[in-house]
Specification:
Strands 1-2-3 form a three-stranded antiparallel beta sheet, covered by helices on one side. The protein contains six helices and three strands, in the order H-H-E-E-H-H-H-H-E. The protein is of the alpha+beta class and 179 residues long. The longest helix is centred in the N-terminal third of the chain and has 27 residues, at 21-47. The chain folds into two domains: 20-49; 68-176, Tetrahydropterin Synthase, Chain A. The radius of gyration is 39 Å and the shape is elongated. Helix content is 45%, strand content 21%.
Length: 179
């Protein structure tokens, strides 16, 4: 019984209330563990060393140098009709070609030699196009059709690559012609 009295006496303060040192001890222990953990992480990271040094080097063979430099040439700036919806629509179109510098002379020569043939082929593509193709946000279908047609007209260069790298359509706006 003497043991029980000492246990009870150790847990109670004067006045018979239990001591409240338990939560305070727990807070101090958790804070000490967090400080030790933070110090351990800091020393571990600092012992691994700092970031590696990086040296910049010049890139070689970038597009845009010499004969491989891209050049944009205007192909057509025209209005084309389309009646696929049952109404007459006029499409104001501007088309550019992106070609390599070494192919510019051949492209210009073919444009000067066959301007009507090129314009007729482009006009046929726009006349036959479905309305949904002309309203695509990126004009993917029309661009693909124009690229195929123009690669037939302009052919391949000496390296066996198409002379046209890309067909660019910055403007393609349609409006009803009968309104």
């Amino acid at each position: 019984m003497a043991d029980e009295e000492t246990k009870v006496e150790g847990t109670e303060e004067e006045g018979g209330e239990p001591k409240k040192s338990g939560p305070l001890k727990m807070i101090i222990i958790v804070a000490a563990m967090m400080i030790i953990e933070g110090a351990g992480v800091f020393f571990l990271v600092s012992s691994m060393g700092g970031p590696n040094t990086v040296e910049a080097t010049e890139l070689e063979g970038l597009e845009g140098t010499g004969e491989e430099a891209p050049v944009e040439l205007e192909l057509v700036k025209e209005r084309f009709q389309n009646m696929q919806t049952g109404r007459v629509w006029e499409w104001r179109v501007e088309i550019f070609l992106r070609v390599r510098q070494k192919n510019v002379d051949e492209i210009v020569a073919i444009q000067e030699r066959d301007p009507a043939t090129i314009k007729e082929g482009v006009a046929l593509i726009f006349r036959r196009a479905h309305d949904r193709h002309l309203r695509e946000p990126g004009l993917e279908t029309i661009t693909r059709q124009l690229t195929t047609y123009l690669n037939e007209i302009f052919g391949l260069d000496a390296d066996g690559l198409p002379r046209i790298d890309r067909v660019i359509i910055p403007e393609c706006k349609g409006f009803p012609a009968d309104a």
